[in-house]
Amino acid sequence: MSIQVLGTGAYLPEKIVTNDDLAQMVDTSDEWIRQRVGVVERRISVNESAADMAVKAAQRALEAAGITADQLELIVAATVSNDEICPGVGAQVQAAIGASCPAFDVNSACSGFLFALDTAAAFIARGGIRYALVLGAERISRILDWTDRSTCIIFGDGAGAFVIAPGENYLTSHLFTKGSREELYIPMDKGNSPFYEKEVAPLAVHMSGQATFKFAVRRIVDDINIVCDQIGIKPADLSYIVPHQANVRIIDFAAKKLGLPAEKFVVNIDKYGNTSSASVAISFDELARSGKLKKGDLIAMVAFGGGLSSAACIIKW
Ligand code: COA
To answer: How far apart are CA 156 and CA 141, in angstroms?
Structure first.
């Protein structure tokens, strides 16, 4: 048994932070950020946690799906930046929307939403679950070093949500992990134990930009080819690709290597930056609400990030 996507939702906090705003904080410029990354502005939360944003995305997805929270039988949330270690985003959303089902979080950094979706799909395939809510939510601004111009200019906050149910539309998926902290890691500092002697770096996104860039392009290309092979289609048969929004040049390189026109790729990094595990869910929601999708369209979602991790899947609309 596979799944179908019944409804999607997204939420972005109101505050817009432009490149010019950041140029007043670190040594950068609007021109450099637009050209090298493709971000024009991003949303930054001033009073909402990752879980607060996830609640709003979840309510929109439930409305789109035409079901109520008490009908949910599972909630799986992806995040690396909730204000609290527990309760997790999933549990906080469960309480806030009035659901009573099991809820838990997964952490696979920017690939997290697709890992969460695949997890929920596996629960549904096991049987006994009618409706599940899948979330990606980040207040990534809380874990950035706002004095580091190579990272703070890339990211933004937000949340996305899918309501899924048994169906035949999740055609295939592929998950990838290569345990490594060389390219990208987010330490949590040493913590409170008076007994622990190991040094741990301060809380922040530490990233080797070029190594991460190469990993990202390679994973998009390999993962799209793998999921297409798994169902016997060519990348050109895909109607749309919804990629993780980390750098518009990563998307452009991958599109060229796959031999696909740029128009097939959903791009909104200019408006929101990299919202980590929320990015693919927000982008898919934009596509779903754009009115462009036709019945039978094949849509690939693909993401990559810390872990290192990557994931892709194909959905038939
Ligand atoms: N403004 C101005 N200059 C900047 C800058 C900024 N915000 N950030 C870096 N620079 C400078 C560097 O200091 C360097 O200067 P130098 O040549 O004097 O040493 C120069 O720009 C080039 O740096 P480099 O790291 O080679 O730039 P880049 O073109 O690779 O872009 C990233 C840097 C981080 C934008 C890019 O590597 C990237 O997007 N990588 C992938 C990141 C990613 O996907 N992260 C999320 C994973 S989920």
So the answer is: 6
Cβ of 39 closer than 6 Å to ligand 1, yes or no, is no
Of 110, 152, 228, 313, which is the active-site residue? Answer: 110
Could you tell which of 20, 25, 32, 150 is best to mutate to test the pocket of ligand 1, judged by most ligand atoms within 8 Å of the CB? 150
Q: Is 206 a catalytic residue?
A: no
The answer to whether the CB of 132 falls within 8 A of the CB of 72 is yes
Whether 141 and 176 map to the same domain: the answer is no
- Please give the pLDDT value at position 49: 98
Domain count, the chain: 2
User: What letter does residue 192 receive in the DSSP assignment?
Assistant: S
Containing 248, the helix (H) or strand (E) segment is helix 248-258
Give me the mean pLDDT over the 220-235 stretch: 98
- At which of 168, 185, 219 does a domain end? 168
Q: What is the CATH number for 196?
A: 3.40.47.10
19 and 148 co-located in one domain: yes
**Judgement on whether residues 105 and 204 belong to the same structural domain of the protein:** no
288 alpha carbon – ligand 1 mean position (Å)? 32
**In the annotation, is 110 catalytic?**
yes
Quick count: other Cβ atoms within 10 Å of Cβ 31? 10
Q: How far apart are CA 30 and CA 38, in angstroms?
A: 10
Where does a domain end: 135, 168, 201? Answer: 168
Shared-domain flag, residues 158 and 207: no
205 in the same domain as 128: no
| 7 shares its domain with 155 | yes
pLDDT value of position 1: 64
The overall pTM is greater than 0.70: yes
Query: Which residue in 72, 88, 69, 91 sits closest to 80, CA to CA?
Result: 88
Q: Which atom of ligand 1 is nearest to the CA of 209?
A: 37
Q: Residue 22 has which token pair? A: 């950041």
Atom of ligand 1 nearest to the CA of 28: 1
Q: Residue 306 belongs to what domain range?
A: 172-316
